[in-house]
Each structure stands twice: as structure tokens, then as C-alpha cells.
């Protein structure tokens, strides 16, 4: 893509239980008109340094499309469709869902499936970020402003319940390949109590969260390695078989793996018609 610039940095060490990383981007001559925001382990904060971010389809069918300079999206099990301008610039923050109480003033469960204007969430310091970041002279200064504001916003806030924090970290480390009853037993709770507490904090039941993590793993492998046999990718990512992978991809991404690759990774030259077979020519 012509004129693409990315800057990636972890936050200040005191924030790393709240934020995984900052991703700054500047892109020119963007050809893909609509980008799919896929389900992942993160609550996402997207701050535009140019025009508003335009969401044209939401994960929940009961939420109308919206646009804003800064948007927060909770954990979700369906794609967000984002209209792309030819030239765009902004910063994306990957938030630990267990840190949204500290940063956004509400649990991740209240954001689950929704994308909302950051200005509607309440924290005044965060609402000023689009203007402050747009006026800053470069990525280093912008990331320093994020450190400053987020550290002030989260100062003195208690950490989440240790059992849920531990279980979420354990599930993420296993890429979703853990049984819910085993996790509950390790925490020392009944499966029902564990599931209720987990969903109350993150917004997704443990089984759905594990589903998202397996899907996320498959997407990461495709981006990292490019040409992969889909049957092998399915097994590596924790799916039963290639058909299971394809069905989950349609549910969570809103399209087949081949359609997504054609949109986001067109250089892979993937034949969608053979995506559902295990033949030798079904590699991507």
C-alpha cells in the first residue's frame, strides 16, 4: 500500500496490565473501501487524527452506524465494518478488557458488542485526546501524551478480582484451548459461578471468549505466514477441522477465509472456490 506508516510501542510499564500496545498509523491511497474490524481479545480504542471514524455496520444489529473522532469497542463475536478514507491517520489502543473500569469508568461487560463515542463514556481527560494527539508533533510525543493521560486516569484504581484476572490470562495464554470446567476447577469455583462472574466482568461467557481467541489465533497465523494449508491452520488453531474453521470464520468475520484474504491480504492470490476442500491446491 502506497504511503503506509506504522509506529508500534508498548505503554509505560505501570500501564501494561491495562494496555497491550499503542499502534500509530498513517496511510495514503487506501484502496479497500471497507475494513473489517474482527473479534479479538482486546477492547479497542480508535482515535482518529484526521476526520471521524465511520462505522457502517455494528456487531450488534440493534446498534445504528455511527461516526466519531474517538470510538471504544467492546469484546464482540461479529465484525465491525469501517468505511475507509483514501488518506487516514490515527492511533489504536489495545486494552485489556479487565482494565476498562480503570480507564473508561465501566466494566467491559457494559461495552460488549457495542462501539461507542469515547466522549459519551465520561472520563474528561480521555475526551480531549483527539485534539491533543492531532496537535502533537510526532509519534513519540503522542505516545507520551497517552502514557500521561492514562496513568492519571487509572491512578489509585483497584485491580480486578484476582480469580477472573488469573483465569483470563490463563485462557489467553492457551489461545482458548482450555475447557471451561477445568478453568473453574483451577480457580476453585463451580462452573456455573465461574461462568457468571466471568461474563459479568468481560461481557462474554468463557466458552465464547475461548472461541474468539481461537479465531484470533488463526488470523494471526495467516498474517504472519501467508500461504498456509487451511486444514493445517484449523488444527493448529484448535478447530476440529477445516469445515469448522470456515464456519467459524463466516460467523465471526462475516465472510469466508478466502474472501477476507482477498480483501486484506490480496497478495496471497487465494482461490475462494477451493477454500472448502482439503485438496493440495487449497493453500493460502
UniProtKB/TrEMBL annotation:
It holds the Pfam family HTH_18. PROSITE patterns: HTH_ARAC_FAMILY_2. Keywords: DNA-binding, Transcription, Transcription regulation. Transmembrane segments: none annotated. SMART domains: HTH_ARAC. It comes from the Bacteria. Residues 174-263 form the HTH araC/xylS-type domain. The keyword Transcription regulation applies. GO terms for molecular function: DNA-binding transcription factor activity; sequence-specific DNA binding. This is Helix-turn-helix protein.
